Amino acid sequence: MSQAGPELPEVNVSEHDGIRYLHLGSEWIQGSMRIAAPDEIDLEYVQRMMAWLLFVDPASVAQRHAMQLGLGAAALTKFCRRRLRMQTTAIELNPQVVAACRTYFKLPPDDARLSVVLGDAAEVAAHAHWQGRIDALQVDLYDEEAAAPVLDSEGFYADCRRLLTGDGCMTVNLFGRSSSYAASLERIAAAFGPEAVWAFKPTREGNTVVLALRTPQTPGRPELQARADAVESRWGLPARKWLKVLRRIG
Protein backbone atom coordinates (compact mmCIF):
# COMPACT_ATOMS: atom_id res chain seq x y z
CA MET A 1 0.00 0.00 0.00
CA SER A 2 1.13 3.57 -0.54
CA GLN A 3 2.87 5.76 2.01
CA ALA A 4 0.32 7.81 3.94
CA GLY A 5 2.46 10.93 4.12
CA PRO A 6 5.87 12.22 5.18
CA GLU A 7 5.09 12.01 8.89
CA LEU A 8 2.65 9.10 8.91
CA PRO A 9 3.64 5.43 8.82
CA GLU A 10 3.02 3.13 5.90
CA VAL A 11 -0.09 1.00 6.30
CA ASN A 12 0.21 -2.73 5.62
CA VAL A 13 -2.21 -5.65 5.77
CA SER A 14 -1.35 -9.31 6.35
CA GLU A 15 -3.35 -12.53 6.73
CA HIS A 16 -2.77 -15.73 8.67
CA ASP A 17 -5.06 -18.64 9.54
CA GLY A 18 -8.28 -16.83 8.64
CA ILE A 19 -7.41 -13.56 10.38
CA ARG A 20 -6.52 -10.28 8.66
CA TYR A 21 -4.14 -7.92 10.48
CA LEU A 22 -3.42 -4.20 10.24
CA HIS A 23 0.17 -2.95 10.63
CA LEU A 24 1.57 0.57 10.64
CA GLY A 25 5.04 0.33 9.15
CA SER A 26 6.18 -2.51 11.44
CA GLU A 27 5.36 -6.09 12.37
CA TRP A 28 3.34 -4.96 15.41
CA ILE A 29 -0.37 -5.71 15.12
CA GLN A 30 -2.55 -2.61 15.30
CA GLY A 31 -5.85 -4.42 14.77
CA SER A 32 -7.39 -7.56 13.35
CA MET A 33 -10.50 -9.07 11.80
CA ARG A 34 -11.62 -12.66 11.58
CA ILE A 35 -12.45 -12.89 7.89
CA ALA A 36 -15.37 -15.26 8.38
CA ALA A 37 -16.91 -13.00 11.08
CA PRO A 38 -16.00 -9.41 10.17
CA ASP A 39 -18.36 -7.76 12.67
CA GLU A 40 -17.09 -9.66 15.70
CA ILE A 41 -14.20 -8.47 17.90
CA ASP A 42 -11.26 -10.84 17.55
CA LEU A 43 -8.62 -9.60 20.04
CA GLU A 44 -9.17 -10.12 23.77
CA TYR A 45 -8.08 -6.65 24.82
CA VAL A 46 -10.36 -5.04 22.21
CA GLN A 47 -13.26 -7.04 23.62
CA ARG A 48 -12.39 -5.60 27.04
CA MET A 49 -12.63 -2.09 25.60
CA MET A 50 -16.38 -2.81 25.54
CA ALA A 51 -16.56 -3.34 29.33
CA TRP A 52 -18.29 0.03 29.77
CA LEU A 53 -21.39 -2.03 29.00
CA LEU A 54 -21.23 -3.34 32.59
CA PHE A 55 -22.09 0.15 33.87
CA VAL A 56 -25.20 0.97 31.83
CA ASP A 57 -28.68 -0.44 31.35
CA PRO A 58 -28.45 -2.78 28.34
CA ALA A 59 -31.82 -1.51 27.11
CA SER A 60 -30.37 2.00 26.75
CA VAL A 61 -27.35 1.11 24.62
CA ALA A 62 -28.85 1.86 21.21
CA GLN A 63 -29.71 5.40 22.36
CA ARG A 64 -26.08 6.15 23.29
CA HIS A 65 -23.15 7.68 21.40
CA ALA A 66 -19.78 5.93 21.10
CA MET A 67 -16.53 7.57 20.01
CA GLN A 68 -13.24 5.89 19.14
CA LEU A 69 -10.00 7.87 19.30
CA GLY A 70 -7.87 5.81 16.92
CA LEU A 71 -9.62 3.67 14.31
CA GLY A 72 -7.23 0.72 14.23
CA ALA A 73 -8.81 -2.06 12.16
CA ALA A 74 -12.28 -0.63 12.96
CA ALA A 75 -13.32 -3.53 15.21
CA LEU A 76 -14.81 -1.26 17.88
CA THR A 77 -16.35 1.09 15.35
CA LYS A 78 -18.08 -1.73 13.46
CA PHE A 79 -19.26 -3.43 16.64
CA CYS A 80 -20.77 -0.24 18.08
CA ARG A 81 -22.37 0.75 14.79
CA ARG A 82 -23.60 -2.64 13.57
CA ARG A 83 -24.05 -4.87 16.60
CA LEU A 84 -25.01 -2.28 19.23
CA ARG A 85 -26.70 0.04 16.71
CA MET A 86 -25.23 3.10 18.40
CA GLN A 87 -24.46 6.52 17.05
CA THR A 88 -20.74 6.06 16.38
CA THR A 89 -17.94 8.53 15.65
CA ALA A 90 -14.35 7.48 14.96
CA ILE A 91 -11.41 9.88 14.90
CA GLU A 92 -8.35 8.85 12.87
CA LEU A 93 -5.30 10.92 11.90
CA ASN A 94 -4.03 8.73 9.06
CA PRO A 95 -6.19 8.72 5.90
CA GLN A 96 -4.56 5.48 4.75
CA VAL A 97 -5.86 3.71 7.87
CA VAL A 98 -9.38 4.79 6.93
CA ALA A 99 -8.83 3.61 3.35
CA ALA A 100 -7.49 0.25 4.57
CA CYS A 101 -10.47 -0.23 6.89
CA ARG A 102 -12.92 0.49 4.09
CA THR A 103 -11.07 -1.74 1.60
CA TYR A 104 -9.89 -4.66 3.73
CA PHE A 105 -11.75 -4.57 7.08
CA LYS A 106 -15.40 -4.17 6.04
CA LEU A 107 -15.85 -0.71 7.53
CA PRO A 108 -19.15 0.54 6.05
CA PRO A 109 -19.53 4.00 4.50
CA ASP A 110 -20.66 6.88 6.69
CA ASP A 111 -24.40 7.12 7.25
CA ALA A 112 -26.86 8.62 9.71
CA ARG A 113 -25.32 6.66 12.61
CA LEU A 114 -21.65 6.45 11.54
CA SER A 115 -19.11 9.22 11.06
CA VAL A 116 -15.40 8.59 10.47
CA VAL A 117 -13.52 11.87 10.92
CA LEU A 118 -9.97 12.59 9.78
CA GLY A 119 -8.48 14.56 12.64
CA ASP A 120 -6.17 14.80 15.60
CA ALA A 121 -7.49 13.04 18.72
CA ALA A 122 -6.03 15.65 21.07
CA GLU A 123 -7.75 18.48 19.20
CA VAL A 124 -11.06 16.62 19.12
CA ALA A 125 -10.89 15.80 22.83
CA ALA A 126 -10.23 19.45 23.67
CA HIS A 127 -12.94 20.88 21.40
CA ALA A 128 -16.07 22.23 23.03
CA HIS A 129 -18.26 20.73 20.29
CA TRP A 130 -18.12 17.22 21.74
CA GLN A 131 -18.14 18.02 25.46
CA GLY A 132 -20.84 16.18 27.40
CA ARG A 133 -22.03 14.27 24.32
CA ILE A 134 -20.14 10.95 24.41
CA ASP A 135 -21.39 7.96 26.40
CA ALA A 136 -18.61 5.49 25.52
CA LEU A 137 -15.15 6.87 24.71
CA GLN A 138 -12.65 4.24 23.53
CA VAL A 139 -9.03 5.39 23.42
CA ASP A 140 -6.40 3.29 21.64
CA LEU A 141 -3.63 5.56 20.33
CA TYR A 142 -0.24 4.05 19.57
CA ASP A 143 2.65 4.77 17.25
CA GLU A 144 3.83 2.30 14.63
CA GLU A 145 6.12 0.51 17.09
CA ALA A 146 3.34 0.09 19.69
CA ALA A 147 5.86 1.36 22.24
CA ALA A 148 3.75 3.83 24.22
CA PRO A 149 0.48 5.78 24.01
CA VAL A 150 0.73 8.77 21.70
CA LEU A 151 -1.45 10.79 24.10
CA ASP A 152 -1.02 10.03 27.79
CA SER A 153 -1.03 13.28 29.80
CA GLU A 154 -3.26 14.24 32.70
CA GLY A 155 -4.50 17.14 30.58
CA PHE A 156 -5.52 14.83 27.77
CA TYR A 157 -7.41 12.55 30.16
CA ALA A 158 -9.12 15.58 31.69
CA ASP A 159 -10.27 16.56 28.19
CA CYS A 160 -11.56 13.01 27.71
CA ARG A 161 -13.54 13.27 30.92
CA ARG A 162 -15.18 16.47 29.68
CA LEU A 163 -16.36 14.65 26.56
CA LEU A 164 -18.44 12.22 28.61
CA THR A 165 -22.08 12.36 29.57
CA GLY A 166 -22.97 12.10 33.25
CA ASP A 167 -22.91 8.30 33.19
CA GLY A 168 -20.35 8.05 30.40
CA CYS A 169 -17.20 5.91 30.51
CA MET A 170 -13.76 6.01 28.93
CA THR A 171 -11.91 2.77 28.18
CA VAL A 172 -8.23 3.03 27.31
CA ASN A 173 -5.61 0.52 26.20
CA LEU A 174 -2.39 1.04 28.15
CA PHE A 175 -0.24 -1.60 26.53
CA GLY A 176 3.28 -0.38 25.85
CA ARG A 177 6.63 -2.11 25.98
CA SER A 178 8.43 1.04 27.14
CA SER A 179 5.55 2.84 28.83
CA SER A 180 4.83 2.89 32.53
CA TYR A 181 1.43 1.46 33.37
CA ALA A 182 1.58 2.84 36.90
CA ALA A 183 2.31 6.36 35.66
CA SER A 184 -0.50 6.22 33.10
CA LEU A 185 -2.93 4.93 35.71
CA GLU A 186 -1.91 7.75 38.05
CA ARG A 187 -2.66 10.34 35.37
CA ILE A 188 -6.08 8.85 34.69
CA ALA A 189 -6.87 8.74 38.40
CA ALA A 190 -5.80 12.37 38.75
CA ALA A 191 -8.18 13.40 35.96
CA PHE A 192 -11.17 11.24 36.95
CA GLY A 193 -10.62 10.53 40.65
CA PRO A 194 -9.37 7.11 41.81
CA GLU A 195 -12.83 6.06 42.97
CA ALA A 196 -14.03 6.34 39.34
CA VAL A 197 -11.30 4.13 37.85
CA TRP A 198 -11.41 0.37 37.24
CA ALA A 199 -8.65 -1.77 35.75
CA PHE A 200 -8.33 -5.20 34.18
CA LYS A 201 -5.45 -7.52 34.79
CA PRO A 202 -3.15 -7.61 31.74
CA THR A 203 -3.94 -9.95 28.88
CA ARG A 204 -1.41 -12.59 27.88
CA GLU A 205 -0.13 -10.17 25.25
CA GLY A 206 0.40 -7.44 27.87
CA ASN A 207 -2.52 -5.16 27.08
CA THR A 208 -4.03 -3.54 30.17
CA VAL A 209 -7.44 -1.94 29.67
CA VAL A 210 -8.54 0.72 32.15
CA LEU A 211 -12.06 2.11 32.59
CA ALA A 212 -12.74 5.60 33.93
CA LEU A 213 -16.29 6.73 34.72
CA ARG A 214 -17.44 10.34 34.47
CA THR A 215 -19.36 9.77 37.70
CA PRO A 216 -18.12 7.11 40.16
CA GLN A 217 -20.26 4.00 40.49
CA THR A 218 -20.09 1.23 43.05
CA PRO A 219 -22.40 -1.46 41.68
CA GLY A 220 -22.76 -4.54 43.83
CA ARG A 221 -21.68 -7.96 42.69
CA PRO A 222 -25.23 -9.12 41.88
CA GLU A 223 -25.81 -6.05 39.69
CA LEU A 224 -22.53 -6.54 37.83
CA GLN A 225 -23.28 -10.23 37.39
CA ALA A 226 -26.70 -9.45 35.94
CA ARG A 227 -25.19 -6.91 33.54
CA ALA A 228 -22.49 -9.39 32.52
CA ASP A 229 -25.12 -12.06 31.86
CA ALA A 230 -27.06 -9.62 29.67
CA VAL A 231 -23.98 -8.48 27.73
CA GLU A 232 -22.90 -12.05 27.06
CA SER A 233 -26.33 -13.27 26.00
CA ARG A 234 -27.15 -10.25 23.82
CA TRP A 235 -23.83 -9.56 22.13
CA GLY A 236 -21.61 -12.59 22.68
CA LEU A 237 -18.86 -10.76 24.54
CA PRO A 238 -17.12 -12.71 27.36
CA ALA A 239 -18.47 -10.41 30.06
CA ARG A 240 -18.70 -13.07 32.78
CA LYS A 241 -14.94 -13.60 32.49
CA TRP A 242 -14.41 -9.86 32.78
CA LEU A 243 -15.73 -9.87 36.33
CA LYS A 244 -12.91 -12.21 37.38
CA VAL A 245 -10.17 -9.79 36.25
CA LEU A 246 -11.73 -6.31 36.71
CA ARG A 247 -11.32 -4.31 39.93
CA ARG A 248 -11.90 -0.74 41.09
CA ILE A 249 -8.58 0.89 42.03
CA GLY A 250 -9.87 3.47 44.51
Describe this structure in words.
The chain is 28% helix and 25% strand. It has helices spanning 44-48, 75-83, 95-104, 121-126, 154-163, 181-192, 221-235, 239-242, and strands spanning 11-16, 19-24, 29-34, 65-69, 87-92, 114-118, 134-139, 164-173, 197-200, 209-213, 246-248. It has an 8-stranded mixed β-sheet with strand order 6-5-4-7-8-10-9-11. The longest helix has 15 residues, at 221-235. The radius of gyration is 17 Å and the shape is globular. Residues 1-6 have low confidence and may be disordered. It comes from Ramlibacter rhizophilus. This is Spermidine synthase. One of its GO terms (biological process) is polyamine biosynthetic process. Keywords: Polyamine biosynthesis.
In brief:
The protein is α/β, with parallel strands linked by helices and 250 residues long. The protein has one domain: Vaccinia Virus protein VP39 (Rossmann fold). 28% of the residues lie in helices and 25% in strands.
**Average residue pLDDT:** 92
Query: What is the helix/strand order?
Result: EEEHEHEHEHEHEHEEHHE
Radius of gyration: 17 Å
CATH architecture: 3-Layer(aba) Sandwich
Number of structural units classed as domains: 1
State the helical fraction: 25-40%
Beta content comes to 15-25%
| Major sheet: arrangement of strands | 6-5-4-7-8-10-9-11
Q: How many distinct beta strands?
A: 11
Outline, from the CA principal axes? Answer: globular
CATH homology superfamily name: Vaccinia Virus protein VP39
Distance between the termini: 46 Å
What class do helices, strands and sheet pairing give? alpha/beta
CATH fold field value: Rossmann fold
| Major sheet size, sense and barrel closure | 8 strands, mixed
CATH class: Alpha Beta
Count of helix runs: 8
